[in-house]
Amino acid sequence: MKSSSLLRLFLITLLVSGCTTLKEEGASGVVGNLGGTRFYALSSLPPATISVSTLRIGVGPLQIPRLLNRPQIVSRKNSNEINMAELHQWGGSYREELIQVMTDNLSALLKTDRIEQYPWKFAFKPNYQVRIHIEQFDGQLGKNIILKARWRLLKNNKELLSKLSLINIPIKGKTYGDYVKAQSKALAVFSRQIVAKIKQLKKLRRLQSIR
Prior knowledge:
The protein is of the alpha/beta class. It contains three helices and eight strands. The protein folds into two domains: about 35 residues; about 170 residues, Rossmann fold (3-Layer(aba) Sandwich), CATH 3.40.50.10610. Strands 5-2-6-7-8 form a five-stranded mixed β-sheet, covered by helices on one side. Strands 1-4-3 form a three-stranded mixed β-sheet, with helices on one face. Helix 2 crosses helix 3.
């Protein structure tokens, strides 16, 4: 009887301890399961006040390497060795996270809500389409994030320009949360580069129409 009571007491203590751990993780903004896995999400730029604009932007297709298309957060131990963090994973589809952040960023920077992800409805006719092929998007914990992406700007399925963006963002901290924040910053820089080219093309077309 005594050993049975001790066993029950041990199980109750273990259960309470587990619930407390989950509650603390949830309070800090990190959701963990019983295995201790933490889940992360990329963040976009703050939304801007939408102006009266007829500008329509189509985003995608967006391609990523097979290496990145997985739940685990991928980082590098060195130039030749990859680390896949089983206990640090994306909360959803990584590719969907990327295209959603890019869509939100372009909408905020261009101050337009007329923006659609590929594939869009037949009725939607974008003034510009941005096709993105991410070739590298990783780095070393506590060091830096490297984003290497080739992208094309099209109008009526006609290519206007093709660019290569190579972005290097220092990681301020040594945690996976810091790693993800640096990735979000890299996407913000990338978005600004695309918007700068769209604005240049719009200005050039206005000048041509005046002439």
